[in-house]
Design brief:
Immunoglobulin-like; 23 strands; 3 domains; about 10% helix; 4-stranded mixed β-sheet; about 290 residues; mainly beta
Length: about 290
């Protein structure tokens, strides 16, 4: 019987490999050899098809629904409650520190610090928010942006509240360049220059963070605070110390009052359906 020479053919796809040996052209093949070759080729083709299907299925995008933020927890508007009140300063109101802004002619000379603002005993710029009690409730991120302006080489407002993921529109109404520089602990830090008459900056913060400091690298006296929270239940006291939080579902909550120099005070409050409850708070003079 003539000696048969063999040629090796290897097929590969992903992790599959098939090596098939076929006789050289002109060599004698018996029926058994032919069927062996055809069987091996059929197996190889099947493995290649399976491998391609596996690759295609692995490249399919994940469930789009799973990537969407969870739907907001419904709140019955017929039952919502309100918390309001006044934050007081207990003691003699500190004198506002004078700020010399003469290094930049566009900043118009003197100004006053806003770290403790007291008007007739009311304490302004206190951030008030629901710190605990909402459980696993989720809330839609507002589509409307909140505004942070730079005017007279000061930030307006001095204390700002925003939901995580909500857009902050930062404007420059001064005829000088500002350099906005948030210095967070739990969010991404950034530092961006904004010349006069340029388009507003669009920024957001992903994680909850209270009293996140913001400064201007061009003007060292310019400081303000952004408060990033998970719910819409927050407020900032006005110059007379008044605040209001509306739309709360009935429940028991911890309300936090946070002031940049005087720290944090907490109160627990329970509100029923349609109830309006007054929750006042005071901060003592800590020897400022």
């Amino acid at each position: 019987m003539p000696r048969i020479g063999w040629i090796g053919i290897t097929a590969r796809e992903n992790n599959f490999e098939m090596n098939v040996q076929i006789p050289r052209k002109g060599e004698i093949m018996n029926r058994k050899t032919v069927w062996t070759i055809f069987g091996a080729l059929a197996v190889c083709a099947l493995l290649l098809i399976v491998g391609c299907n596996k690759k295609e299925s692995s490249e399919q995008p994940t469930n789009n629904m799973a990537e969407q933020p969870p739907a907001a927890t419904p709140i019955d508007p017929a039952t919502v409650a309100t918390i309001d009140g006044t934050v007081k300063f207990d003691g003699s109101a500190p004198k506002a520190a004078k700020i010399d802004m003469s290094q930049d002619p566009a900043c118009k000379g003197m100004n006053e610090a806003e770290n403790v603002v007291v008007t007739n005993g009311g304490l302004g710029n206190v951030f008030v928010y629901v710190k605990d009690g909402l459980g696993n409730r989720t809330f839609d991120v507002p589509k409307d942006a909140v505004e942070l302006d730079q005017q007279g080489c000061k930030y307006h407002p001095h204390v700002l509240g925003v939901m995580a993921g909500q857009t902050i529109e930062i404007k420059n109404d001064d005829q000088t360049t500002h350099n906005i520089h948030p210095t967070p602990k739990d969010n991404r830090e950034w530092n961006e220059s904004q010349p006069p008459s340029t388009a507003p900056l669009q920024k957001s913060f992903a994680r909850e963070e209270i009293m996140l400091p913001v400064k201007c690298n061009q003007h060292p006296w310019m400081k303000m605070y952004i408060n990033v929270v998970k719910s819409p239940f927050y407020a900032v006291t006005d110059s007379s110390g008044k605040y209001e939080i509306k739309g709360l579902p009935p429940g028991t909550y911890t309300i936090a009052f946070v002031q940049e120099k005087l720290g944090e005070q907490d109160q627990q409050v329970t509100v029923g359906p349609k109830e309006t409850k007054v929750v006042d708070q005071s901060f003592k003079d800590a020897g400022m």
